[in-house]
Design a protein that fits this description.
Elements: E1 9-13, H1 19-32, H2 43-51, E2 58-64, E3 67-79, E4 84-94, H3 103-117, E5 123-124, H4 133-139, H5 155-162
Parallel strand pairs: 4-5
Antiparallel strand pairs: 1-2, 2-3, 3-4
Helix pairs in contact: 1-2
């Protein structure tokens, strides 16, 4: 990717027409995280869940001199302590050729602006412990939450737990 001396970074919200590009970037992220075969999402999944009647996520795309180079996918969460919504940043990714050029900073700045525009009190996300981007986040003033341990229920554990549900489904 040949870069101009002063590359122009643009950020915009993803649209339904961007599902193929989003999936390509999601696969790039999975490869970066040493899990290239872990992505089972399809363009139809992204279309249905991100651009249907009740979207479950939003995404922003980053372009460098008009070429797509990154994305961030997020959704609203809620803080009981703040008593307000917040943002959960599920994924952020910049292709290798565009790293170090300000694209990640531009994506994070746009996410912060979206959060403030919407009256959301914070941005939450997780980073792999080996990811060098952790230093980048700290340079932005974003601190890790060392006292919090992430957990996840999925697959068989999720099914086993749900089988214990004795509610009336309401």
């Amino acid at each position: 990717m040949g870069q101009a001396v002063n590359p122009v970074i643009t950020i915009r919200l993803a649209t339904v027409d961007d599902c193929a590009l989003l999936l390509e970037l999601i696969r790039g992220l999975a490869t970066y995280e040493n899990a290239p075969d872990a992505v089972v999402a399809t363009e139809d999944d992204l279309r249905r869940h991100g651009f249907g009647p009740k979207p479950k996520f939003e995404a922003i795309l980053a372009f460098l001199d008009g070429e797509p180079v990154g994305m961030a996918l997020f959704f609203a969460n809620f803080s009981t302590w703040l008593g307000s919504p917040g943002m959960y940043l599920e994924d952020i990714y910049v292709i290798e050729a565009a790293r170090g050029l300000g694209v990640g900073r531009a994506l994070m700045a746009r996410l912060a602006a979206i959060a403030l525009e919407r009256g959301w009190g914070r941005i939450d996300f997780a980073a792999l412990d080996w990811n060098p981007a952790r230093r980048f986040y700290q340079r932005l003033g974003i601190a890790p939450l060392a006292e919090w341990v992430p957990y996840r229920a999925e697959g068989e554990a999720l099914r086993r737990l749900a089988a214990e549900d004795r509610s009336d489904g309401a």
